[in-house]
Write a structure and sequence with these properties.
elongated, single chain, mainly alpha, about 85% helix
């Protein structure tokens, strides 16, 4: 496998792992009225990061690829917002949230870097 394909695969796996970890995290939360609505949003945005990256890798043009990567970055940023908004009482859960926020931030930066590189090639 060539290095570029390997990078795509690794990022696809990483975004899948992120979505799975968010889902597992949300399953531990108290189901208050607010949390139920926020949980729906965080699951959508966190899973959308990887789904859009898969779409980006299937793009037929650099412009299509750039558009999907931009959506990945946006969804990662949105995930951070929803994670920060969730109501948490337990310290262990707070540490888990902080870890997910860090991962979403890293993903956002990775997609931002990819986007800048692709834009310079357009």
């Amino acid at each position: 496998m060539e290095p570029q394909s390997s990078k795509h695969y690794d990022l696809e796996e990483r975004t899948l792992k992120f979505a799975r970890e968010v889902i597992a995290f949300t399953n531990t939360l108290r189901k208050t009225l607010a949390n139920v609505e926020i949980i729906k949003q965080i699951i959508r945005s966190s899973s959308s990061v990887g789904a859009n990256y898969i779409e980006a890798n299937e793009s037929l043009s650099k412009k299509g690829y750039a558009l999907r990567v931009k959506i990945c970055r946006k969804e990662a940023k949105e995930s951070i917002y929803w994670l920060k908004l969730i109501e948490i009482k337990e310290e262990a859960t707070e540490k888990q949230r902080a870890s997910l926020v860090r991962e979403a931030t890293e993903l956002m930066k990775i997609f931002g870097s990819i986007l800048e590189k692709v834009k310079s090639q357009l």
